Amino acid sequence: MLDTTLTPAPEAQEQVGHDQPSLAVQIAGITMKNPLTVGSGTYGHHGNFSQFFPVETMGALVPKTIRNYRWPGNPAPRVYEVTAGLHSSVGIPSNDWETFAAKDAQILRDLKLPVIQSVIGRTEDEYVEIVEKCDALGFLAGLELNLSCPNLKQGGLDFGYDPAAASRLVARVRKATRLPVIAKLAPDYSSLVNVAKAVEAAGADAIALVNAPRAMCIDYQTRKPIIGNKIGALSGAAIKPMAVYMVWQLYRSVQIPLFGMGGVSDYRDVVEFMAAGARAVAFGTINYVDPMALPRAIADLRQYLLDQGINDVNELVGSAHD
Ligand SMILES: Cc1cc2nc3c(=O)[nH]c(=O)nc-3n(C[C@H](O)[C@H](O)[C@H](O)COP(=O)(O)O)c2cc1C
């Protein structure tokens, strides 16, 4: 019987031919076979979207942020569609650690791609505790610190808005793990560069930006906020130019590599973020609209590089800068 596993089909041979551009990137010591990943919270806790395409198609998986304790999340309604975007406040519902370790982590462990777990805490201690537990799992490729959380011991300002708080936190986390640490920043025009420089100096290996900016929608008939938490966030195409600008600005401000995101929906957006300075690019809200957008963008990106005569996707990084 013919063993087809040893005989690549002609199209498969073409895929690995020398004339194919290289899509692989290195970011924070993590090797991604292509620069595409997903924004935390938009692809489930353990790649639940695998019903649409194999999770391993993407360069790395960033699952939903977890806490060190069970948390119900915010009251419904949690999401509301707006012009060119999504208004949401999910509130990061989380299992307790034991449930995560026994269930989700077991699924993540078997995936054949780098998994970067996103974590959050209300205090430095809570971040450090969850980071140590994640590190001990032994299979993660990196940790993403979701800094969009009010710092309960320091007046409630988000860690990501306060350079001193962000710096202290990253320095403590840095000591608690040998895994690459990625600081995910909130998009705040006035503090962004200072926070980015602070987390870089404190030992972060990369920065992910942007998290979804704060937003509100009010029902004109009831004249009350629409979503349960009243205050939410805005994501999707509406925020893309702002996010591209912020990536562009941080590329000029820090040396560590950047994961770019905010309204990405196809390969053209990937090129835009990479030209601004991102080494890897995440698909977020689009996953809810078109779950096949990411795998399609990988093929389209490869074709774009071929058409442009570019051999290596890394050549795109920062190409918008003089
Ligand atoms: C419904 C929803 C849930 C999200 N949950 C998280 C989360 O748990 N952790 C996190 O760091 N970001 C979370 N985000 C932010 C996204 O990862 C991403 O940074 C942001 O939405 C911008 O990208 P986008 O415009 O492509 O969605 C969430 C976004 C949405 C829309």
Write structural notes for this entry.
By secondary structure, this protein is an alpha/beta fold. It has a single domain (22-316), classed as Alpha-Beta Barrel (TIM Barrel), CATH 3.20.20. It is 31% helix and 15% strand. It has helices at residues 10-15, 97-102, 104-109, 124-137, 163-176, 192-201, 240-253, 267-276, 286-289, 293-308; strands spanning 25-27, 30-32, 36-38, 79-82, 85-88, 116-119, 142-146, 181-184, 206-209, 214-215, 232-235, 258-261, 280-283. A 7-stranded parallel beta sheet has the order 3-13-12-9-8-7-6, covered by helices on one side. The longest helix has 16 residues, at 293-308. The chain is globular. Mean pLDDT is 92; it is low at 1-16. The chain binds flavin mononucleotide (FMN). Residues 39-42, 64-65, 86, 88, 90, 92, 118, 146, 184, 210-212, 235-236, 239, 261-264, 284-285 line the site of flavin mononucleotide. The site of flavin mononucleotide has 25 residues, from strand 5.
Q: Please trace the helix and strand order, writing H or E for each element.
A: HEEEEEHHEHEHEHEEEHEHEHH
Number of E-state strands:
13
Mean pLDDT: 92
**Can you say what the CATH homologous superfamily is?**
Aldolase class I
- Main sheet characteristics: 7 strands, parallel
Strand order of the largest sheet: 3-13-12-9-8-7-6
End-to-end distance: 59 Å
**What is the CATH topology?**
TIM Barrel
Strand content: 5-15%
The CATH class turns out to be Alpha Beta
Structural class: alpha/beta
Shape: globular
By DSSP (H or I, 4+ residues per run), the number of helices equals 10
Low-confidence stretches: 1-16
What is the domain tally? Answer: 1
CATH architecture: Alpha-Beta Barrel
Radius of gyration: 20 Å
Helix content: 25-40%
The kinds of small molecule bound in this structure are:
flavin mononucleotide
Main location: cytoplasm
Domain Dihydroorotate dehydrogenase catalytic: 23-304
Protein name: Dihydroorotate dehydrogenase
Pfam families: DHO_dh (PF01180)
